[in-house]
Every structure is written in structure tokens, then in C-alpha cells.
Amino acid sequence: MLVLSRKAGQRIVISEEITITVLEVLGSRVRIGVEAPASVVIRRSELAAWPPIRVVNENGQVATSKVENVVLSQVG
Length: 76
Known about the structure:
By secondary structure, this protein is mainly β. The chain is 12% helix and 37% strand.
């Protein structure tokens, strides 16, 4: 594991496609922003085990997805 120290406003770039920005540090809490292509799945570790749900897209096709993936794809 790589451990880095960053201050609010500083960034970490991963493979030129993903940028993580430290937005705010409040005591023991850190707010981060993640910029990545829509094809990259980003989820909080505590949500990774959620059960799949049925999703119907604009064409009426049914897909199996996870709640956090659906929400992130809508944010775009």
C-alpha cells in the first residue's frame, strides 16, 4: 500500500485518467473528490457487498447492477 500525505486542495493522479482531490479536512474526516472516466467503477468499500438490483435502461433492456453503480453512472 502506498501512503501519501496531502493537504486540502492537493491532488493525486493515477494512470493519467483518475484524479483524487482532497477537498476538505475536518478533524478526523476527509472529503475527497474523484474524477474518472464513466467506465471506471468507484464505490465505497462498505457498499461493495450490496446485493444486485434490476435496472431497466432507456431501451427497456434489463440489466443487473448494484445501487452505487447506478447512482454514479447517472452523475456521469
